[in-house]
Amino acid sequence: MFVQIATLLALLASSYGAVLPMGLEPLSPQSGRIVGGTKTTIADHPWQVSLQRSGSHYCGGSIISNTIIVTAAHCLLSPITASVLKVRAGSSYRSLGGSLVQVAAFRVHEEYRTNTKMNDIAVVRLKTKLTLSSTIKTIQLATSAPGHGAAASISGWGSTSYSGSSSSQLLYVDTRIVGRGECASSTYGYGGTIRETMICAAAANKDACQGDSGGPLVSGGQLVGVVSWGRQCALANYPGVYADVAALRQWLLAAQKTV
Fold it and tell me: Where in the sequence is the signal peptide annotated (predicted)?
């Protein structure tokens, strides 16, 4: 089964110009969506941005400084270059409003692995500074992962059902952290594919999904995860899987200075 999925992903990757991780089958660029989402405004999620390739939204991201965005590594793999990327910040809509800023450079975690999805994190440097406001704000990086069962939220643009139509307005869902040990246990279907740089979250009939890749998992007002992978969307036995920001914090702090 994994071989079949890998083959499908390779074909999708050639279409989208990036290697896509296995799991949420897949969390691919271009088809952004939150399953079970509720419409919201950017004022409630002012760190959220739309990462746009050649004029179209394809991944999410989070503002950690007026020039640095955190997103997923799998959103930025070759042959993607900074010249085709822009970030839209400060808008509830992915295609209009707010500030649209050219990307100057980006850095993907050097140990990101497409087969395991480990270290699925990257930083983007903007060509010009964002003007911080009520709709454009930074978010702090978590220093420790929240405990199992902690309240969290995810946000992004897109449809409210698997394979459904996309939404132009920002959506969010409330969810709960699933601890790494619990996520890798027999309670769920992932087993040993959950690694030390990952954190999970789940809620009935709610999840991040394709195109929400790179977007924020927020708990306690801090960025605790980056949308990474999973199996389909909102399946009861398969939580959404995120890059663990606390586990990758030191890399992020160093990378934003050198990107």
Answer: 1-17
Q: What is the pLDDT of residue 15?
A: 33
CB 108 within 8 A of CB 102: no
Q: State pLDDT tens for residues 99-136.
A: 999 999 999 999 999 999 999 999 999 999 999 999 99
Residue 11 belongs to a domain: no
Average pLDDT in the chain: 84
Could you tell me the residue range of the domain that residue 145 belongs to?
A: 140-244
120 is catalytic: yes
CA separation for the pair 100, 52 (Å, rounded): 9
What tens digit of pLDDT does each residue of 5-53 get? 333 333 333 333 333 333 334 344 333 346 677 889 999 999 999 999 9
Catalytic residue of the set 99, 109, 120, 155: 120
In the set 74, 91, 99, 159, the catalytic residue is 74
**CATH code at 150?**
2.40.10.10
In this structure, the number of other CB atoms found within 10 A of the CB of residue 121 comes to 28
Catalytic residue among 213, 219, 228, 244: 213
Residue 57 · residue 168 · CB < 8 Å: no
* Residue, of 76 and 34, whose pLDDT is higher: 76
Is residue 178 situated within a structural domain?
A: yes
Work out the number of other CB atoms within 10 angstroms of the CB of residue 167: 19
* Residue 83 burial (C-beta neighbours within 10 Å; 0-12, 13-18, 19+): exposed
Six-digit token string for 187 = 């309670």
**Residue 74 annotated as catalytic:** yes
Number of separate domains in the chain: 1
Q: Does the annotation count 44 as an active-site position?
A: no
